[in-house]
Design brief:
- The complex is a heterotrimer of chains A (512), B (301) and C (305).
- Chain A is an alpha+beta fold.
- Chain A is built from 14 helices and 20 strands.
- Chain A has helices at residues 2-19, 51-60, 108-118, 156-161, 237-246, 257-266, 298-307, 310-318, 347-356, 373-385, 397-405, 428-431, 443-454, 458-475; strands at 31-36, 65-67, 74-76, 79-86, 89-94, 134-141, 144-149, 176-177, 183-184, 196-202, 206-211, 228-233, 251-252, 270-284, 364-369, 389-394, 411-416, 478-490, 494-495, 510-511.
- In chain A, the strands form five sheets. A ten-stranded mixed β-sheet of chain A has the order 10-11-12-1-13-18-14-17-15-16, with helices on both faces.
- The model of chain A is unreliable at 1-22 (pLDDT under 50).
- Chain C is 78% helix and 0% strand.
- Chain C has helices at residues 2-30, 33-38, 44-53, 60-72, 86-121, 126-140, 143-157, 173-181, 184-199, 202-209, 214-251, 257-266, 270-298, 300-304.
- The chains are: A alpha+beta (512), B mainly alpha (301), C mainly alpha (305).
- Chains in contact: A-B, A-C, B-C.
- At the B-C interface, helix 6, helix 7, helix 11 and helix 13 of B face helix 1, helix 6, helix 7, helix 9 and helix 11 of C.
Chain lengths: 512, 301, 305
């Protein structure tokens, strides 16, 4: 019997060692492994707006323009030059030496096909804001294109240098059909012109990129240096941290304040804190989309605004350079102002307002969240003090986004990174023009935002945006919370510089 | 276990100890039973008198007082004997209130599963035949279903709350009650007093309630303790995975889940609530083992 | 024996069927597969379309029969999230869980059988006490907590074992211990009880009286008989372990069936959940069936009754 047991154990061990493969990570293997807790399923940036894909997108694809993270200057990337023909027409001369990862040559047809595809609302690009300003593109010659705008849109260059990447012209036709018989463009092959090629994608687990040896020379993105970049989902933040400490992971971020401090003290890895454009907010159902929640009463919304000590959360939980914000935008964005009605932390006033609204004993409500559970738990704690019993519904981002769009999340704490676009049109206009994220639905706010979005005069834009931002705060339907900061932790072998737009540029990273 | 001291013992009992006295004597001589009972008693007191015993409000957060270490740590103080959590809530207070949740869920789930399992088990054992066949089949089916997986799936789809957790656990863990009650009833149903009761024309329900149940009571108590422990562990696991008791309730499993992000650098945030669960389950198990030993000493080992 | 095994096989099939019905009803009564399938951001119309198109508006019985017929042909549906056939997903993840289960059971047996034997040979001594203490502690320790404590100690303090993933055999050490630990007390208690019974039996006494060496008596005669119930208990424990793997695999990021189950639960991936519960149940049923047969083979009394 014992012999059999030993035999069994031996079998198991040999089976295990059969599957053993060397763990790829670090300088020695020229492989940078990075990780977040989120899963990635669709690798096509227009059809997936999670941050991980925004990041991977900048590595595998190129844009017509590139915004230098240091100088904020727009430089031609797939173009050699660009100019405004009038305020609804942009003209680009294209590079002639660019090849896609599959070997085909890049030219005007690709730009035209990509922009005509994404600007067509029927093709269902996920973040409409990124493409809705575009009417399409026209080919002038093999290496010259015009991008046409629907109406004057000053932030066009920002979008062209950020989310609006160029795909091969023929690729869209290769998409598979989904269960409903619609084309699912998320299924196309991930082929771009960028400094890295996506070589393997295991949905929900990992994405592997290899260096594009034929990457164009003289790109403002620079020449990539690291051979292989692997993104791996590690669902558990502790496991992630442990992997970083033990060397099987080279780069992680979103490390909570306390852990970052302890990690720094240990000194085994580089820990850096950098500001980001991401803000946290709480939306309340003023528009009564979920029907019959207490948030239709302005005094209830006001009570919530006064009940939460946002300064304490920013200082104690977020840490770093986090600051409280009072209006629905990131402070550095064009058009953003803090000159709006402000709501100080005042639990007594909050309780009084709640009583006046007809809820002397408070009420029970679900609060939805998807990111940094402890921040929302702190909010729940503050609400509890004035009698509101908020039940946390903590979901994956995509699941929550769906609920929000369906109008089923009357009270949610979420975050917004503006796709790193330094203009309020990427945030305020996204949320308050009666779209699916809008739980405010105020006509005056919408009107002002439309003025701001379509005017080219900075003064008029600023004035209109200010009116809109004041409107949001007067209606208290959206409580801006605080700005995020990011703690990065990475291998001491890695030469890496964080940027405030939350897009790690691994193509500029090197091994020391 | 209660001893009646007000009555004077009659001479016969002085010579020959009564069964109760024997039981009591054995109980007090049983170390495991005493330790288990003692810890459980403390936990019960904690749960019942939480508002009096706890130094703070379990929900009262103070972000300026976050993650204070417990008193035995260099930086600890008696202000917060077990320190504070991630949101600056007093840890000992939350541990004390947490006993309420664990015990409430443990006992409620046990009661539900106990009623269900005992009814099925006694019916199977008493009636035998087809009834027995069907119920045995149900038990086998239930045993084949992975408890945690099914509980998680159902709770995830239904949404989690205290009631849902109690019902889901209660409806899942009745198998052991049914198995034990079935065989205990089988043994008893052929005994003289049952046969004579049946001969006297007592109704089936009455026989079960007055003859069968009192005689399977010992086995029932032992299974009941095991199932309380089982339910406590399951609740902790569900809450740990975020599908059990929801924040800000002070469930021990949830406290481990919340403390997890600090465990590498501040291990006490998970060590303390984990120890609480461990002690409670240990106490209940010791109590169960002890009761079995004491009531049926011949069945030791 | 043949009749007995056929009869038991029939019961096993019926139980499998019952599990599939119960799981189907439970899942479909608790949630809405049409909503899950339509995905995030779907409008009411989309959901209605899916409900209509995939027949979720039909009576549950019809839906079940539909599922059952397809399942019989090996078609367990398509994962909503991964968009791959469920059977493929499960087949891809099963080896990892199989290795985890086997090594966890091996660990449990390697510790608990020697301890149980020692405790039985020297009852009421220090060995017995140690064995008993391990049993009592093992049953009271929350698995996930034990796993976290190991992670802190071996992963971070000592840094000798990796804490997440499943690329090398070292990755399986902690998960196997965490999962196997919970099965130890039961196996040990049974070994101990079995050994005590066997050691006091007549034939062992006879063997001893014949002057056979104590070691021969112990291993060749006593252990062999005492271990029979342990084998069937181990089968049952292995079945339980598969259920418990959901927590362990989630904590240690092992990408096996448990992890798949947890992710499918979070994604409301109905067909995967249904197939997973069913396959774990089937595995358990198979194990207990084999254990029953083994018992019947070794103990003729069972066959007759």
């Amino acid at each position: 019997m014992k012999a059999k047991l030993i035999l069994g154990a031996g079998l198991v061990l040999s089976a295990v060692s059969l599957m053993a493969q060397p763990v790829l990570a670090g300088k020695a293997d020229d492989t940078l492994t990075w990780s977040t807790t989120r899963e990635v399923d669709v690798a096509i940036p227009y059809y997936n707006n999670t941050r991980e894909i925004v990041i991977l997108g900048r590595h595998a694809w190129d844009n017509l323009l590139y915004r230098d993270p240091k100088t904020a200057e727009y430089k031609p990337l797939l173009a050699t030059s660009y100019k405004w023909v009038d305020n609804v027409t942009l003209e680009f001369e294209l590079r002639k030496d660019v090849k896609f990862h599959d070997g085909t040559t890049f030219d005007a047809d690709d730009v035209v096909a990509t922009f005509n595809h994404v600007s067509n609302p029927d093709n269902g690009v996920l973040t409409k804001r990124n493409v809705s300003w575009m009417k399409g593109a026209t080919k002038l010659s093999q290496y010259k294109v015009q991008v046409n705008l629907n109406s004057p849109f000053p932030a066009a260059l920002e979008y062209l240098s950020g989310p609006d990447a160029i795909f091969p012209a023929e690729i869209w036709a290769t998409a598979r059909k989904d269960a409903k018989g619609k084309m699912d463009y998320g299924t196309i092959a991930p082929i771009g012109t960028g400094p890295y090629k996506i070589t393997e994608m295991i949905p929900g687990e990992s994405v592997t990129m290899e260096i594009n040896k034929d990457y164009m020379s003289g790109s403002p993105k620079g020449k990539p240096s690291i051979g292989k970049i692997i993104f791996r989902t590690v669902g558990d933040a502790e496991a992630q941290m442990a992997e970083l400490l033990t060397g099987s992971m080279d780069w992680i971020w979103d490390i909570p304040k306390d852990k970052a401090e302890s990690l720094k003290e240990m000194g085994a890895v580089t820990v850096v804190n950098a500001p980001t454009m991401r803000i946290s907010y709480i939306a309340m159902d003023r528009a009564d989309r979920a029907k019959g929640t207490p948030f239709k009463h302005k005094k209830v919304r006001l009570a919530v605004a006064h009940a939460i000590d946002r300064a304490a959360i920013a200082r104690e939980l977020v840490g770093g350079s986090s600051q409280v914000i009072h209006s629905a935008c990131f402070p550095t964005q064009f058009g953003c102002t803090q000159d709006v009605p402000k709501y100080a932390y005042d639990p007594k006033l909050a309780k009084k307002l709640l009583t006046e609204a007809g809820y002397p004993d408070g009420f029970e409500i679900d609060i939805h969240a998807y990111r940094q559970r402890e921040f929302t738990e702190a909010v729940i704690g503050y609400l509890k003090k004035i009698g509101i019993k908020a039940n946390l519904k903590f979901l994956q981002y995509k699941a929550l986004r769906g609920k929000v769009w369906e109008g089923k999340a009357p009270f949610h704490q979420m975050t917004w990174g503006s796709f790193s676009v330094n203009d309020v049109s990427a945030i305020t206009s996204h949320f308050f023009k009666h779209g699916r994220d809008d739980y405010c639905r105020d006509d005056e706010i919408k009107k002002q935002l439309e003025i701001g979005d379509t005017n080219t005069d900075p003064k008029i834009r600023k004035a209109a945006y200010k009116k809109a931002l004041i409107g949001v705060q007067e209606n208290v339907c959206w409580l801006p919370m605080f700005t995020y900061t990011k703690n990065y932790g990475y291998s001491k072998d890695l030469d890496f510089t964080p940027t405030s737009d939350e897009i790690p540029r691994f193509f500029t990273a090197k091994w020391k | 276990m209660t001893v009646n001291t007000s009555k004077l013992p009659d001479p016969a009992t002085i010579l020959e100890p009564s069964p109760t006295q024997l039981l009591t004597r054995r109980a007090f001589g049983h170390t495991g039973l005493m330790i288990g009972g003692g810890i459980l008693l403390i936990m019960l007191i904690m749960a019942l008198f939480a508002p009096i015993l706890a130094p703070f409000d379990p929900y009262d957060q103070d972000l300026a007082q976050r993650l204070i270490p417990p008193v035995w740590h260099d930086k600890g103080s008696w202000g917060h004997p077990l320190g504070t959590d991630n949101l600056g809530r007093d840890y000992i207070t939350r541990i004390i209130y947490g006993a309420r949740i664990s015990l409430l869920i443990g006992f409620s789930a046990m009661l539900i599963s106990g009623v269900l399992g005992t009814a099925l088990g006694v019916a199977a054992g008493y009636f035998g035949g087809r009834v027995d066949m069907v119920i045995t089949f149900l038990i086998t089916t239930r045993l084949a279903m992975p408890v945690i997986l099914v509980a998680l799936a159902v709770v995830a789809l239904l949404g989690s709350s205290l009631q849902i957790v109690i019902w889901v656990l209660g409806l899942l863990i009745w198998d052991r009650f049914a198995v034990v009650m079935r065989s205990a009833t089988q043994q008893i149903r052929t005994m003289d007093y049952v046969t004579s009761a049946r001969a006297l024309g007592c109704s089936t329900l009455r026989i079960i309630l007055s003859e069968i149940l009192p005689n399977v009571a010992n086995a029932l108590i032992v299974v009941a303790t095991l199932e309380v422990a089982h339910a406590v562990l399951l609740e902790a696991a569900l809450s740990f995975l975020g599908l059990g008791v929801q924040p800000p309730e002070p469930s021990w499993g949830l406290m481990i889940s919340e403390g997890k992000s600090h465990m590498f650098f501040k291990p006490w945030v998970i060590a303390i609530p984990g120890t609480a669960i461990f002690l409670l389950v240990l106490a209940i198990n010791l109590l169960g083992d002890g009761i079995r030993d004491v009531t049926a000493p011949e069945n030791r080992n | 024996m043949l009749i007995y095994s056929l009869k038991r096989f029939g019961v096993a099939i019926l139980v499998t069927f019952a599990v599939s019905v119960i799981t189907f009803v439970l899942l479909h009564a608790s949630g809405d597969p049409a909503m899950a399938m339509a995905g995030e951001g779907a409008t009411q119309e989309d959901i209605e379309y899916v409900r209509e198109h995939f027949g979720f508006n039909r009576p549950m019985l019809v839906q079940y029969i539909d599922w059952f017929v397809r399942a019989l042909q090996g078609d367990f549906g398509i994962s909503i999230y991964l968009k791959i056939p469920v059977a493929e997903v499960i087949a891809a993840k099963a080896p990892i869980t199989a290795i985890l289960g086997a090594s966890a059971l091996t660990f449990a047996l390697l510790i608990s059988i020697p301890l149980g034997v020692l405790a039985a040979m020297k009852p009421n001594t220090i060995f017995d006490r140690i064995a008993l203490t391990i049993a009592v502690i093992g049953q009271a320790m929350p698995t996930f907590w034990f796993a976290l404590l190991m992670m802190i100690f071996f992963g971070i303090t000592l840094r000798i074992l990796p804490v997440s993933g499943n690329t090398t055999w070292q990755h399986f050490v902690m998960p196997s211990i965490a999962l196997g630990y919970y099965a130890m007390p039961a196996i040990m208690r049974l070994t101990r009880a079995g050994m005590i019974e066997v050691l006091s039996s007549d034939y062992i006494r006879t063997a001893r009286a014949k002057g056979l060496r104590p070691r021969t008596v112990l291993f060749k005669h006593a252990l062999r008989n005492a271990i029979i119930p342990v084998v069937s208990l181990s089968a049952v424990q292995l079945g339980f372990m598969l259920g418990g793997s959901i927590i362990i695999e989630t904590i240690f990021s092992l990408k096996g069936l448990g992890n798949l189950a947890w992710q499918s639960i979070q994604r409301s991936d109905f067909d995967v959940m249904q197939a997973l519960v069913l396959s774990i149940a089937m595995f358990y049923i198979l194990l207990t069936y084999l254990a029953d047969l083994l018992n019947a083979f070794l103990d003729p009394r069972i066959r007759v009754s």
